[in-house]
Amino acid sequence: MPRYWSKLLGLITALLLFPAQMFAAGGGADLPDLIVLVADTRRLTGLEAWWGNLYNMGHLEFALVTVTVIPLSGVVLGLLADVVMSRLGIDLRNRALAEH
Q1: Given CA atoms 71, 75, 80, 85 in this order, what sign does their dihedral have?
Q2: Integer Cα distance of 19 and 42 in angstroms
Q3: What pTM was estimated for this model as a whole?
Q4: What confidence score (pLDDT) does residue 92 get?
């Protein structure tokens, strides 16, 4: 059984390191000039265009806005779910069990 785990661990390690070996395999000095990370915003309007342009202008600003928006939207959706459940009669503030 220890041989099985050893081979499995070796396979997992090889699979995790294989992409790193492929990236390290070459491309030379020209490779960074060929990679361009941009969003196609030609047909976008409104909030989608703003979001895409924010990504194109700077990845740091895009990351900061994304990290801010995701928790805020989670809080808003959580509060909305609390309101809906309280309107349905589900009491989330009382921890007493209804089944006796």
Answers
A1: positive
A2: 33
A3: 0.53
A4: 76
Express each pLDDT in 33-85 by its tens digit: 566 778 888 998 999 999 999 999 988 999 999 999 999 999 999 999 999 99
**Cβ count near 23 (within 10 Å):** 10
Catalogue the long-range contacts made by 72-75 (C-beta closer than 8 Å, 24 or more residues apart). Answer: none
Specify the long-range contacts of residues 71-76, CB closer than 8 Å, at least 24 apart: none
How far is the C-alpha of 56 from the C-alpha of 51, rounded, in Å?
9
Instruction: Check residue 53 and give its pLDDT.
Output: 92
What's the burial of 56, exposed, middle or buried (CB within 10 Å: 0-12/13-18/19+)?
middle
- Token digits for 14? 């090889």
